[in-house]
Amino acid sequence: MAKTLGKTTDKVLVGSVVGTAVLYAVPGLHMVAYPLLLLSTLAHEMGHGLTAILVGAHFNSFQMWSNGSGVAAWSGNVSRLSLALVAAGGLVGPAVASACFFALAKKAELARLALTILGVLLIVAEFLVIRNSFGWIFVGILAAIFLYVAQQNSPWLAQTTLVFLAMQLALSVFSRMDYLFTKSAQTSQGMMPSDVAQMAHALFLPYWFWGGVCAAFSVAVLFLGMRFYLGK
Length: 232
Fold this sequence. Notes:
The chain is built from eight helices and four strands.
């Protein structure tokens, strides 16, 4: 049984790697990668919102735009440490989501369950926190895809989908890592202090230090998630 499971996870991983390579190598298919950029933005902003809830604050709204930027609004009377944690939640959100997807994709039943729960939670988010039309449409389409794949009688498809998503989020951690060392960020709402700048303001030490901490944490979490997935 363990040997069969090992072959399955290897096939799923290879299939996801090949799919990713084709996506970026074949001319014209790079446009298909555009939704994956939006996926990383979703994971980033939801990381802020969910962390706000965990520290006892309120997740008020989430907006995202066609250029790939997004903003999560929250409120609450929290400590300076909690302020820093909420800022960090978005920075490590894609890595944490990726690691969780890798771990859950190890078994077909868990992969299908994970996609079902993700689809339902995204639908709930549509009504509770998403506040602009572009975000509402993108998240709605994503939820529909997750639920559709989860309902198919194909465990391999569910695992492949989840691993593919995990890989894209993992890649986004590295492709967008420059943001971890940026003092300000440009969004569709204008120029704002970056997340690491907000961490530095809430705590101490320069923003690039906290960028390094978040980068190290993200890489460590990704390593653990991949190691768990590949463990026989």
